[in-house]
Design a protein that fits this description.
single chain, mainly beta, Jelly Rolls, 2 domains, six-stranded mixed β-sheet, five-stranded antiparallel β-sheet, 39% strand, disordered N terminus
Length: 257
């Protein structure tokens, strides 16, 4: 009986979905659910393509999509979400991070920032100690709707509405560069959404208009602030003179001493 079970396992090996992983930036695993590669090793990476030939003709396994395909890497401007996996970050060690409000998953940029979805909905993510306003509402739109901008469109496409206070805790002490990402999603607003931004209790931007001078909606913009002193926590406060506050993402980077 043991020999027969072993033979069955050999003839019908466990099914595995194909997956991609970008080792150059430790990008996290992205699964290709549904198609299978066949009982032999028939997924072939070559020349920038991931080739999945039709090598399982006659196979009796009940996979739904017996197809052949080839995948090519997309530019960073496209949505490429992954689940980074659970991990613990020791207090006082965190010094680079992106918080993507309302996003559907995590991702790493080639500049080296790991962006985490907040709240976490796309699968397990590293644990980061963050405190936000309880009444905040989160929303997501696909980045295809974003207009040309200087920011990552997959960051500014999602957003937090009504966020008045956000505290990122347990950072490594030092001076930080803080980038704040914004985009106005409403096409029916009659007045500008004007916000006041405070970092560490100090006003860094007063009367900031989310919509640029052209009046374009879904137009990402980034506000950059350098030399923000952090002992352990970074505190962001937002207030708006018209409607609720809005923000898409926070990126922090500890400056070299």
């Amino acid at each position: 009986m043991r020999r027969w079970r072993g033979l069955r396992r050999f003839l019908h090996p466990p099914k595995r979905d194909a997956a991609s992983y970008d080792k150059t930036i430790e990008s996290g695993t992205v699964f290709l659910s549904g198609p299978r590669s066949g009982c032999t090793n028939s997924i072939i990476p070559s020349g920038g393509l991931l080739n999945v030939p039709y090598y399982y003709d006659g196979c009796t396994c009940s996979y739904p999509l017996p197809i052949a395909m080839a995948l090519v890497a997309l530019p960073q401007s496209n949505e490429q979400w992954s689940s980074w996996g659970p991990s613990e970050i020791a207090p006082g060690k965190l010094q680079r991070l992106g918080i993507n409000f309302g996003a559907p998953g995590d991702r790493m940029t080639r500049e080296g920032t790991l962006w985490l979805d907040y709240p976490s909905v796309g699968g397990p993510s590293p644990t980061v100690n963050i405190e936000t306003t309880e009444s905040t509402q989160y929303r997501y739109q696909h980045s295809v709707w974003m207009q040309g901008s200087e920011s990552h469109p997959w960051v500014t496409a999602s957003m937090a509405e009504g966020l008045e206070r956000c505290v990122i805790k347990d950072l490594k002490p030092g001076n930080y560069v803080v980038r704040l990402y914004f985009a106005e999603p409403e096409s029916t607003r009659e007045t500008q959404r004007v916000q006041t931004i405070k970092l560490q209790g100090q006003t860094v931007a007063d009367d900031f208009e989310v919509i640029d001078e052209t009046g374009s909606i879904m137009q990402g913009t980034v506000k950059k602030f350098a030399n923000i002193q952090v002992q352990s926590n970074l505190t962001l406060k937002l207030s708006s003179t018209d409607g609720v506050t809005i923000i898409s993402g926070i990126e922090i980077l500890r400056q070299d001493p």
